[in-house]
Amino acid sequence: MDFHVIAGISAPIVIAFHASFKFRGIAGVAFWIMLAVAFSGIVGRYLYSQIPRSLSAAELSMNELESSEKELTEALSAQSIYSADQLKRILEVPSAEHIRRIGPLLAIGEMISLDLRLPFQVAALRRASSTLAGNLRSVGGLLSSVNPEVERVVRLVRKKASISRRVVFLDQTHRVFHLWHVIHRPFSYAFAVLAIFHIVVVMGLGFVGMGFR
CA torsion sign, 142 to 143 to 144 to 146? Predict the structure, then answer.
């Protein structure tokens, strides 16, 4: 999977240099389709990462997710650094009814928004429990602090927030991921056909040109 992602991202860059950034004709169409494939691949990798899995890559059941979420809730209740109100602002998730009502595409947009906000919310937690010098060392809480207990709680908060959000969005994530397959594969096949056609034409014209010398 990692090699697939790296190849998908690096291929447009390599081919852009190969074409000297001139995207005309069949090769140009193939390039833009490949760019669409690469972009959709990034989206697909993000969606894939939102479906919780065990170390063996098997998808976790809802019971396993809820059990893990309960354990993290108990661990956070036992800590004494942050109040329940401080943690609530980070751990709060939309209701399942709200997610069903807005539909899969808007739900994914909301999930991305929550993921983008999480690092800044965690930074605010670090700042709340640190001195001015500590905040400067951690760049306003964006980097790890020197307090191991704070970092332990931060890890728990990150994990709890991740699981809680994935549980709420799981159904919509599945639906969009299946829709992504429907879109991604035809683009991939179209690019492969055009790329092969381009290679055959270039090689054919090359041999024809050599024959006239």
Answer: negative
